[in-house]
Known about the structure:
This protein is of the alpha/beta class. It has a domain at 24-146 and 189-237: Decaprenyl diphosphate synthase-like (Undecaprenyl pyrophosphate synthetase, 3-Layer(aba) Sandwich). Helices cover 42% and strands 14% of the residues. It contains 7 helices and 6 strands. The chain has helices spanning 28-34, 39-60, 79-102, 118-131, 147-163, 174-179, 226-238, and strands at residues 20-24, 64-71, 106-110, 138-145, 191-194, 213-216. A 6-stranded parallel sheet has the order 3-4-2-1-5-6, with helices on both faces. Helix 4 links the parallel strand 3 (106-110) and strand 4 (138-145). Helix 1 (28-34) crosses helix 2 (39-60), helix 2 (39-60) runs parallel beside helix 3 and helix 3 (79-102) packs parallel to helix 4. The longest helix is centred in the middle third of the chain and has 24 residues, at 79-102. The chain is globular and about 60 Å long. The model has no long low-confidence stretch (mean pLDDT 97).
Amino acid sequence: MSNEDPIYPCPVDEDALPKHIAIIMDGNGRWAKEHNLRRTKGHEAGVETVRTIVEHCSSWGVEVLSLYAFSSENWNRPAIEVNALMMLLKTFLRKERDQLHQKNVKIVAIGDIERLPSAARKELELSIEKTEKNTGLILQLALSYGSRDEIVRATKKIAQMCVDGNLRIDDIDEELISNNLDTAGIPDPDLLIRTASEMRISNFMLWQISYAEYYSTKYYWPEFTGQCLAEAVEEFSSRLRKYGGLG
Ligand code: IPE
Ligand code: IPE
Ligand code: MG
């Protein structure tokens, strides 16, 4: 999104806005194929959508935007695609960091960050550090992220506390588990959007999405716009969330 592109108006009042929107950004490859382009071009186009959607969430007053950018399973893709994605991550962070900082956006990351190539990891660490004190939108990037991997790592931390005598088994509760996940301190997603028509979760925030409202759209991620986001938010605001009760 260039600076001249208008922001689509927020479709709901502030209190009806999801506090945390999580997005499984899917369909870059299919979009590229339909346009007779290489898959990498689809990922490049997807970066533009990231910019647009961050701008919208930031201007509407969403508290947290979580973007599933690279899964623990995406390492299994051909090296050429993995390398292109890591290069895009690095250049996105390097190019956008200052602008995001100016917009008061706070960047955080979840996932097995150690696995990222050092150049991308360095840009990520610099971005996190630079925006650490910002109080606007929290942009939570899921990188080398798998929910099962996250739960395994959290379980090991908790087991170690028990072994060290710092925790009793009876004191393990939902809050303790939440506080040991990568998302510690971040409220659970209210709205989970997946683009490109898929109806699966693909190992994304399995614990945290327990009561998120799921929304699927046919649009490929490079086609997803502020208006598409507004439609998802509008649909979200019409849902009755019952949490197992009677609503
Ligand atoms: C989403 O687009 C981006 C990543 C998973 C990194 P895909 O690359 O999965 O696109 P499709 O599903 O092949 O169309
Ligand atoms: C999920 O998309 C991962 C990301 C969006 C980063 P995939 O395209 O990898 O998921 P599957 O393979 O369709 O389940
Ligand atoms: Mg996909």
